[in-house]
Amino acid sequence: MISVKNLTKYYGPSMAVNNISFEIEKGAVVGFLGPNGAGKSTTVRIITCYLSATSGSVSVDGKDVLTESLDVRKKIGYLPENTPLYTDLSVMDYLRFMHNMRRSETGGNGKNRIKEVVSTCGLETVSHKNIDELSKGFRQRVGLAQALVHDPEILILDEPTVGLDPNQIIEIRNLIKELGKQKTIIICSHILPEVEATCNKVLIIHNGEIVADGTPSELRTSFEGKGRISIEIKNELDSFLSKVTRVAGIERIITTEKITDNLIRLDLETIKGIDPREDIFRLCGNNNTVLLEMKRSETSLEDVFRQLTRKEVHDE
Amino acid sequence: MSKILVLTGKELKSYFNSPVAYVVITLFLLIAGWQFATSLFLANQADLRQLFGIIRFILLFFIPAISMRLLSEEKRVGTIELLMTMPLKDWQLVLGKFIAAYILIGITLFLTLVHFITIASIGSPDVGATFGGYLGLALIVGVYLSIGIFTSSLTQNQIIAFILAFVIIFVFYILDKIIFFMPGFIANILEYLSIDFHFNNLARGVVDTRDVLYFISMMFFFLFLTTQVLESRKWQ
Predict the structure, then answer these.
(1) Cβ distance B70 to B99 under 8 Å?
(2) What percent of chain A has pLDDT above 90?
(3) DSSP secondary structure code for residue B60 in this structure
(4) Minimal Cα distance from A49: which residue of B?
């Protein structure tokens, strides 16, 4: 559906996007994940025909963004960063305006379509208010309604949940999930749980480059480095400590926290792909040590993200 | 075409939803009316020439005030991103906004016809000259507006857009008042570029295509520049 090849964008001398390529299939819900200023918005702005690339090509459904720009724009519903809106219009006037501007795509039945969008986005109660009287949450929904008004095949949302309260965030996410059943969606975000909750594909962008892509679970497994096990044990501590590092799969003791004279908590680092929990349990039994607690922590997408984006900084 | 008019409609709604339109129209009519009334009794002549002079002077300030927000505000708020990702060509965008501002001023100018009616009821004004004058005013408005929309495309700041537009318009306005100090051939060029020179031809009631062409090409030139500025943003 969307194909990006060797895309590069400079703003004057500074580079925003560096030679990135990717494909988005029809029906996918893709998250662009990256720290602020990574190049997510720039990429999206090139796809929506707001900016032009310095080099490289982008095509949407086979149409090039430069030569068939108007056709591309017809297919896309776009919610820009910070949700810009015409605040001097009422919600209805605004949606009517957006709908009429796209009349060629929507056909005639504007009234029904606007009604539909208003109810999808939960705007019934405010539809006759001026936009500048609305709360942030409602504005965000107006922005979403505006992007949906012509029933586009592709929906591009740049940070759709910034500034919302937790309930509103969940509402918007559910809405996006619902829409994702029929549409191709791109979401830009620097909030990981958001991407994890809504997307079935993730591109991690950093310093203008794609540093990882895949499904959230693929990313997690491929970047699952050293695992971590924390245990809390009682009795025979000294002999346990001397033996524990010999257990297969355990690399080292990361921290030791003494709770009382006879009770400590250990954080152990394990070698990739080996699960030494059973051996630790046996060791405790043989050593007369009481195992009070044992927990293995999994690599979260957050760890992957932090690893990738921090590493890059160190490389420089 | 329909998209241009949709945009025009939205712009007009913005003007009339906020106090802008009412303030502009009222102030304009007040100043024009007051000046008209005083000069009418002083000169004791059934003539609109005074009025046209005043209106041309007021337009110097009013048009930049109306045009200053057209694009700069969109840039500041970010709504330009919505507009420019819609299936709409850049020139359609510019034209839609231009027409909206034109209509607002058009309404204002139309209301000044009341002075013509007043004069017609007490004397017999020259209908041809009046018609020519109004045509000239309408064309001047177009040129001023195209300059205003051009400066509005250059900046995010309305005040800067206003001042720039005022300066450019003022230069064109003042040109035929300084030609006396210029050597002949430069004077000829300046005279041709001067807005008032062409307006005065029309205001005499002589509608010459050369004058009309001057106004139209000025409008076209500045609107074209505006589209180029919008276009260039993509490549920054």
Answers:
(1) no
(2) 16
(3) H
(4) B85
Q: Residue B117: how many CB atoms within 10 A of its CB?
A: 8
Count of pairs with CB atoms under 8 A, one residue in A, one in B: 78
Same domain for A153 and A275, yes or no, is no
Interface probe, candidates B76, B85, B92, chain A, greatest A C-beta count within 10 A:
B85
For residue B30, give the amino acid letter: L
pTM of structure: 0.83
Structure tokens that stand for A79 in this block: 């919610």
B10: nearest CB among A81, A84, A97? A97
Residue in B3, B17, B85 closest to A50 by CB = B85
Considering CB atoms only, which of B3, B13, B78 is closest to A80?
A: B78
Q: What residue segments make up the domains of chain B, in order of their start?
A: 2-231
**Shared-domain flag, residues A131 and A156:** yes
Chain A CB contacts of B79 below 8 Å: 84-86
The pLDDT score that the predictor gives to residue A108 is: 62
Question: How many C-beta neighbours within 10 Å does residue A302 have?
Answer: 12
CATH number at residue A276: 3.30.70.260
CB A253 within 8 A of CB A280: no
Residues A50 and A193 reside in one and the same domain: yes
- Interface predicted TM-score (ipTM) of this complex, two decimals: 0.84
DSSP secondary structure code for residue A87 in this structure: T
